[in-house]
Specification:
This protein has 95 residues and is α+β, with helices and mostly antiparallel strands. It contains four helices and three strands, in the order αβαβααβ. The protein is elongated and about 55 Å long.
């Protein structure tokens, strides 16, 4: 087991990482904004600024799309049992 997982195992058992791609490295479950939506909206704001809009005039946005992603490989390595009800609600399961 990687050292990062051994150290994390002694913590709370679940964590929230900044992006769902971190699930392939050390997290077992992630619920948060979809990265594709974040990048799409970021491109929209960059486009507006490049076309002359002042950043102060642009609205602040909050994420509207969220996804639940479960990494079963990491969960099994940590000995975490994910309930079937949670598995059914997941948008994506990494085997």
């Amino acid at each position: 087991m990687p050292a990062r997982l051994r150290n994390w195992r002694h913590g709370s058992g679940f964590s929230r990482w900044g992006a769902t791609d971190s699930l392939t490295r050390a997290a077992s479950i992630d619920y948060g904004r979809t990265d594709s939506e974040l990048y799409r909206r970021g491109a929209y704001f960059v486009d507006r600024i490049l076309k002359g809009a002042k950043p102060n005039d642009l609205p602040i946005e909050q994420a509207t799309r969220f996804e639940l992603v479960i990494n079963m490989k990491i969960a099994k390595a940590l000995g975490i049992q994910i309930p079937q009800s949670v598995m059914l609600r997941a948008d994506r399961v990494i085997e």
